[in-house]
Write a structure and sequence with these properties.
Strand content: 15-25%
Helix content: 40-55%
Structural class: alpha+beta
CATH topology of one domain: Glutaredoxin
Radius of gyration: 25 Å
Number of strands: 15
Low-confidence stretches: 1-12
Mean pLDDT: 88
Distance between the termini: 73 Å
CATH architecture of one domain: 3-Layer(aba) Sandwich
CATH class of one domain: Alpha Beta
Largest sheet: 7 strands, mixed
Length: 459
């Protein structure tokens, strides 16, 4: 009866959608049990289509998507699952959020290919369930291990009697191939990090594994998620091996992509990948944006990063700092930015769950002690959620955070956080006695560069 009722709801939903045409749309519906989050994102690889799947109180959802045949990504917290969708599909999804994606199942039109993708995803999840053990293996043992899973994935593909198209099988073979080479590529660094034997060396001819990889293959970049990861690692690794450490990392990586990546499609995607978060950290916003514009051709990517650039223009040196008003302090007071006029202000943006933030706490304490009695105030603004206020208060007590501790009014979505376009923490900001920005990206308390910067101020 419940299934019949749900089918009726889907029917009503589609009937009410006047623009619906089965020849152009996908119907996706289903139920996700135990979902704390009541909204899931389904987006294409190029981000040109993005749909919010809204769950009702019982976890049911239904939606239609106007699309051509292409790959979508379903996001659930830190998990993501790839789906193949085409017009005419009527896909019914069921899952338990507590066991996602292991519990994910599909039925209906288009289910065969997506059940296969889920099974393949879960096979690779099994392979990586203990990365410490995996990457601690000696080189020959490691290669044997990943070859075993490569063969399992190939056998899964061969044994899948579910009408997979020749085109899809071709793409999947590539994906399995590149998953194997991705593991090979990241092994040296991971082995050094995870292995107890820090003197163990990788064979001298290890790079020979990659001599036949084409790093500018546009079709493979579009077809294979693992090729995209492999290229991204390759670019980052190649850049770090030759970079000038005296120059801004964030601008230098954009210059490197412009210079080294010959395929325009791949260049556009990498420029977006390295710009969407990093633009907020660049020391010279204008230089960063100039280099980005020099290389990008994709109009949507250019528009996205240009919007970020325009927002950040208000947080460059010398501009009035965005304000926060009546943030609650740990001792119950209401505190605003204007309360610090006449003094320099060092703002630490952090959260209790952020490990890099808590690592800085001892250095923050030393910094505050060093500048005691000087014309500078130190405050920490937590972006913990309001519902986690007790966790925040507990950490303040246990860690003896005895300087001004404030809780932002709406975590990541707080106006102050949004105006500074903060996308990663910890983040440090310095404001002058007139309320103007000295830097929106100060060095961390653990870095010598912060002391050098503070020494230039009239404290």
């Amino acid at each position: 009866m419940k299934k019949l009722f749900f089918c009726f709801i889907v029917f009503v939903f589609i009937s009410c959608n006047q623009a619906f045409d089965p020849a152009e749309h996908v119907i996706i519906s289903g139920k996700i049990k135990n979902a704390k989050k009541k909204e899931f994102t389904l987006t294409t690889l190029d981000r040109k289509i993005s749909v919010k799947l809204k769950l009702d109180k019982k976890g049911y959802f239904a939606d239609t998507i106007k699309t051509i045949k292409q790959t979508f990504v379903l996001f659930e917290k830190f998990n993501k699952v790839y789906l193949e969708l085409k017009p005419g599909d009527n896909l019914i999804l069921s899952a338990d959020a507590k066991r996602f994606p292991l519990s994910l199942k599909f039925s209906g039109v288009g289910s065969d290919i997506n059940n296969y993708l889920t099974n393949r995803h879960n096979l690779f999840l099994e392979e990586s369930k203990s990365n410490v053990d995996k990457y601690s293996k000696h080189e020959k043992e490691f290669i044997k291990y990943i070859k075993q899973y490569k063969e399992k994935a190939e056998n899964l593909l061969i044994s899948c009697n579910c009408g997979l198209s020749e085109e899809f099988i071709r793409k999947e073979k590539k994906n399995i191939y590149y998953k194997y080479y991705l593991d090979l590529y990241i092994y040296p660094n991971r082995h050094l990090a995870y292995s107890e034997n820090k003197t163990c060396k990788i064979s001298e001819n290890y790079s020979e594994h990659f001599k036949n990889i084409d790093w500018n293959n546009e079709q493979d970049y579009k077809d294979s998620e693992y090729y995209r990861y492999l290229v991204s690692y390759y670019i980052g690794n190649s850049f770090n091996n030759q970079r000038d450490t005296t120059k801004d990392w964030y601008i230098s990586i954009i210059k490197f992509i412009n210079k080294e990546v010959s395929n325009q499609y791949i260049k556009d995607q990498l420029l977006f990948e390295y710009s969407k978060y990093n633009i907020t950290f660049a020391n010279d916003l204008e230089d960063f944006y100039k280099e980005f514009k020099k290389g990008v051709k994709d109009k949507k990517i250019k528009k996205d990063i240009t919007n970020s650039y325009k927002k950040l223009k208000v947080t460059v040196k010398g501009k009035p700092s965005p304000k926060f008003e009546d943030y609650e302090s740990s001792d119950g007071k209401k505190v605003s930015l204007k309360d610090y006029r006449g003094k320099y202000l060092f703002i630490d943006v952090w959260a209790c769950w952020c490990t890099p933030c808590t690592i800085e706490i001892p250095f923050m304490k030393k910094l505050i002690e060093k500048y005691k009695g000087k014309n500078i105030e130190f405050i920490s603004i937590s972006i913990d959620k309001q519902k986690d206020k007790s966790v925040w208060e507990k950490m303040i007590r246990e860690e003896n955070l005895n300087w001004t501790q404030l809780l932002a009014d709406n975590d990541w979505n707080s106006d102050f956080i949004q105006k500074y376009l903060i996308k990663a923490i910890p983040r440090y900001i310095i404001v002058d006695p007139e309320g103007k920005i000295i830097t929106a990206n100060a060095p961390r308390p653990s870095k010598k560069a912060l002391g050098d910067l503070l020494s230039t101020l009239d404290l």
